[in-house]
Amino acid sequence: MATHLSQDDLTFTKRVGHTVSFSCGGTGQCGSYAVTWYQKKETDTFRPILYITSGGSTSKPFNHPQENDFVAERNQDNCELKINLVKLDHSASYYCSCRKSGSHSEK
């Protein structure tokens, strides 16, 4: 069974040095599975940044070159990816996904 997550905004326009947050709704459907955040630059493939467990523990095993710029928070039905100090190199779209019962859903 597929998990359907919702994201209102994949891309924001922010000035360098400001803070930006991306929200991912419906993560309660992920159950105990982790939510993974991806960065998609125009000329690149999807690149995983980090994942966050249902308990709120964050892990960054993907060797993303900007991994220290990102933090995530997760509650019962929402997950948020935050960039505290936006840099020009953060220009991209950001996506969340989770895997449940052998399925994979990205939105």
Automatic annotation (TrEMBL):
PROSITE patterns: IG_LIKE. InterPro entries: Ig-like_dom (IPR007110), Ig-like_dom_sf (IPR036179), Ig-like_fold (IPR013783), Ig_V-set (IPR013106), TRG_var/const_region (IPR051117). Residues 17-107 form the Ig-like domain. CDD domains: IgV. The keyword Flavoprotein does not apply. Pfam families: V-set (PF07686). It is found in: Membrane. PANTHER family: T CELL RECEPTOR GAMMA CONSTANT 1-RELATED, T-CELL RECEPTOR GAMMA CHAIN. This is Ig-like domain-containing protein. It comes from Ameca splendens.
